[in-house]
Structures are given as structure tokens and as C-alpha cells.
């Protein structure tokens, strides 16, 4: 994320979440009405998924507002972990939706079912897939640009909807071709399995941040190389630590400086090093301790 993007991040995220809420609400209404008309379990399940998408996006919107508050005396590292909590609850919501799909599909299999007005259902799913595709592209671009967990989670469950549309379309076509509603119910269960997979992924990511998981080893090695190549007087680095809070990265480490007893010069050296690291990671908060060589 470029430096100028850090200031834009809150507004961009709020606008993206409002857009997601609006799209999910529209698709929920359209698919729910269509599901009632067609009696398709796959379309009704997709409508339920859109309702959960909307509720989760609303949760994320208010969670992000809390996470965007500046640090205070009781929260010196800010409120960014609210994003991680939102991702955790979102994974639980997604898991619940998957459980419902399995329960209702199995129930209809034993009770008996039918599907009608199949062309209407196919048209609505095409429309929904197109709207979701545009929304997912927007969320994905912002998530990568801002290194945002909350937008990454948003993109994940909307992309999940888009991928499931292919299965719903296939099911409707096969039901129309064969007259067997098993395809409608079977695809609902396959969608549920994909939902469980995404829920586990988001859950794992959220828990990792809540437990202060740091940057990957490859990123830490690159940071260490930047430190050691910064100035000839910097001859060592130790106690390099990192933690991720929301879209912020916190780094702290010690550097060993050779042959420099002037406090001001050593201070300027560390300040320029911090500037170089934030050029590489603009959303990083860096703390540097400098020691004489060998200490």
C-alpha cells in the first residue's frame, strides 16, 4: 500500500462495505422471491447465503468503525484486532449457513421435492453471478492494496457465492433435462462443503492474528536484509519481532552499531532506517533500539 493510501484506507473500506451490504440485500430479495416461485432448494439456499452475507457485512462495517479508532491510553496498539474478531465471527456465520444447507437438502430428499420455472431461475442466477463478480473484483483489489483482513474476508465469502452459482446453474439445467430434483439437492450439499472450507480458512486466519502471529519468515528475512544493508556501521540485528493488528504491522528490533559514540548520529541512523522500512511496508509501526557492537 503506498503511503498516500494509508489515509484513504478507512474511507475506501467503509465505501466498499456499504457497497457489499447493498449488493447482498438486493441479491437476497431477488433470489428469495425466485426460490419461492421455482421451489428450487439451490436458489433458496443461495438466497439464505446472501442474507448471511448482508448480516456479516453489516457486522464488519460496525467492527471496522471500532477498529479505526485511534490508539488511546487503554489500547496503545489501537483497536485493529476488532477486525480479527469480525473475521472470527464471520467464519462462524458461514459455517452455520453450510450446516443449514445440508440439513434442508437432506430433509427435502426424504420428503420429496420439485422444481418449476427453471428458465426464470437460470436468468436470476446469471444476474446474481454477474453482480457478485463485479463486487468480488472490487473487494479483492482493495484487500490486496490495503492488506486488510476484513476486506479479504468479505471478498472470500462473496467469491464463494460466485463459484457456487456455477453449481446452481448446472443443477437447474440437469433438473430441466432429466426431471430429477436430486441434482438440485446434491448441488446444495456441494455448496455447503465449499462453505465449510472457506469458514475454516477465515477462522484460522482470524485466530492467527488474535494470537499475535507475526510476518512470514520470507518477509522477515527481507526486512533483516534491509537493516543490514542500510549503513556500513550497522553490523548486526537481533530480537527482530513482528505482530499484525488489523491492517497495521508492528516491528521492533535491536541493531548493533560499530564505532559510533555520538548519540545524535546514531539516532539519525535509526530514523533513516525506520524511513527505509516504512518505504517497504508503509503500514508498519517500527521501533528500533540501538546498541554498541557486541552488546
Overview of this structure, please?
The protein has helices at residues 3-38, 41-67, 81-111, 118-146, 149-178, 182-210, 217-228, 263-280, and strands spanning 234-245, 248-257, 284-292. It is mainly alpha-helical and 295 residues long. The chain has two domains: 3-210, Alpha-lytic protease prodomain-like; 217-292, Cation efflux protein, cytoplasmic domain (Alpha-Beta Plaits), CATH 3.30.70.1350. The protein has a three-stranded mixed beta sheet. β2 (248-257), α8 and β3 form a beta-alpha-beta unit. α2 (41-67) packs antiparallel against α3. Residues 1-7 have low confidence and may be disordered.
Keywords:
3 strands; Alpha-Beta Plaits; 2 domains; 8 helices; single chain; elongated; mainly alpha; about 300 residues; disordered N terminus
Set down the secondary structure blueprint.
Blueprint (H helix, E strand, L loop, with lengths): L2 H36 L2 H27 L13 H31 L6 H29 L2 H30 L3 H29 L6 H12 L5 E12 L2 E10 L5 H18 L3 E9 L3
Parallel strand pairs: 2-3
Antiparallel strand pairs: 1-2
Helix pairs in contact: 1-2, 1-4, 2-3, 2-5, 3-5, 3-6, 4-5, 5-6
Amino acid at each position: 500500500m503506498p503511503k498516500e493510501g494509508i489515509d484513504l484506507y478507512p474511507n475506501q473500506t467503509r465505501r466498499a462495505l456499504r457497497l457489499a451490504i447493498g449488493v447482498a440485500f438486493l441479491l437476497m430479495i431477488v433470489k428469495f422471491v425466485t426460490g419461492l416461485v421455482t421451489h428450487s432448494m439451490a436458489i433458496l439456499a443461495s438466497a439464505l447465503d446472501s442474507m448471511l452475507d448482508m448480516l456479516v457485512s453489516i457486522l464488519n462495517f460496525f467492527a471496522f468503525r471500532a477498529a479505526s479508532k485511534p490508539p488511546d491510553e487503554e489500547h496503545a496498539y489501537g483497536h485493529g484486532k476488532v477486525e480479527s474478531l469480525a473475521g472470527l465471527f464471520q467464519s462462524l456465520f458461514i459455517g452455520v449457513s453450510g450446516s443449514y444447507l445440508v440439513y434442508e437438502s437432506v430433509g427435502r430428499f426424504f420428503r420429496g421435492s420439485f422444481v418449476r420455472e427453471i428458465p426464470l431461475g437460470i436468468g436470476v442466477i446469471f444476474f446474481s453471478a454477474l453482480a457478485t463478480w463485479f463486487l468480488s473484483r472490487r473487494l479483492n483489489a482493495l484487500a490486496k492494496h490495503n492488506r486488510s483482513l476484513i476486506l479479504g474476508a468479505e471478498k472470500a465469502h462473496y467469491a464463494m457465492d460466485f463459484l457456487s452459482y456455477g453449481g446452481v446453474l448446472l443443477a437447474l439445467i440437469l433438473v430441466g433435462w432429466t426431471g430429477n430434483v436430486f441434482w438440485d439437492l446434491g448441488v446444495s450439499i456441494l455448496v455447503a462443503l465449499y462453505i465449510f472450507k472457506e469458514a475454516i480458512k477465515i477462522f484460522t486466519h482470524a485466530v492467527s492474528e488474535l494470537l499475535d502471529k507475526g510476518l512470514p519468515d520470507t518477509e522477515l528475512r527481507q526486512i533483516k536484509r534491509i537493516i543490514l544493508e542500510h549503513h556500513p556501521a550497522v553490523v548486526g540485528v537481533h530480537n527482530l519481532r513482528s505482530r499484525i493488528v488489523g491492517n497495521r504491522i508492528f516491528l521492533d528490533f535491536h541493531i548493533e552499531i560499530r564505532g559510533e559514540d555520538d548519540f545524535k548520529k546514531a539516532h539519525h541512523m535509526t530514523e533513516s532506517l525506520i524511513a527505509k522500512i516504512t518505504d517497504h511496508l508503509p503500514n508498519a509501526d517500527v521501533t528500533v533500539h540501538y546498541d554498541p557492537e557486541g552488546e
